[in-house]
Amino acid sequence: MRFSRFYPFLLALFTTAFCAAQPYWQNGDRLGYFGGFATVQGQGEQVVNAHMDLDLGGSRFFTPKWALGTEVSASWDPLTQSVNTTLRAQYLLFGRSDVSHSLLADVHSGVGYHTSQTIMGTSFSSNDVKVGAGLQYTWWISQGVGVYLWPQWSQTNGGPSGLWGWQFDLPIGIQWHWHK
Questions:
Q1: How far apart, in Å, do the first and last CA atoms of the chain sit?
Q2: Residue 155: pLDDT band by 50, 70, 90 thresholds?
Q3: Per DSSP, what are the bridge partners of residue 153?
Q4: For 36, left (φ over 0), alpha (ψ -120 to 50), or beta?
Q5: What would the DSSP string read from start to end of the chain?
Q6: Which CATH fold topology does 3-178 show?
Q7: pLDDT grade, residue 140 (50/70/90)?
Q8: Rounded to an integer, what distance in angstroms lies between the CA atom of residue 51 and that of residue 60?
């Protein structure tokens, strides 16, 4: 095999690994993040599928421990598009950015809208709802930079059958912090 056959695979792998890091900022009493990833699948020298996912969100602390947050995400495939929104209530269980560890709990609910098109041109859409909880652990490497792990469990009807089931997400990323 030639190296050129591996090039699209390596490009997709590094793009996914780099973009899925979801940079995360904290500015005083506000938190904000964005993230996303893109994949391209090929067979031989042809592209057979592509996917892109973008996320944008933020929170505002109303007390030193309690915050409300919102999040919007969008996904694009050649024949499928999705938009999801999430509302979060967050509580700082332990720490802040000037200690080496912090723990942030959240409960969340969200809705999603998905449209699909078949190869024959028929369109259909679906909606889903999710309710769940998450726990973000951050290890602060320095006073301004941390690495976070944010497991999230959700009960959702967003599967192929439309029946309620559990969904588990595990974002991992880098968090930056600065003072005004």
A1: 54
A2: very high
A3: 133, 168
A4: left
A5: --HHHHHHHHHHHHHHHHHTT--EEEETTEEEEEEEEEEEEEETTEEEEEEEEEEEEEEEESSSSEEEEEEEEEEE-SSEEEEEEEEEEEEEEE--TTSSEEEEEEEEEEEEEEEEE-TTS-EEEEEEEEEEEEEEEEEESSSSEEEEE--EEEEES-STT---EEEEE--EEEEEEE--
A6: Porin (2.40.160)
A7: confident
A8: 31
Per-residue pLDDT of 13-64, as tens digits, reads 444 444 444 555 555 567 777 777 778 777 777 777 788 888 888 888 888 8
| Distance (Å) of CA 144 to CA 32, 65, 139, 172, 180 | 15, 20, 11, 17, 13
pLDDT at 160: 64
| Tokens matching residue 27 | 């500015």
- CA triplet 169, 147, 75: central angle to 5 degrees? 35
Q: Where are the domains of the chain?
A: 3-178
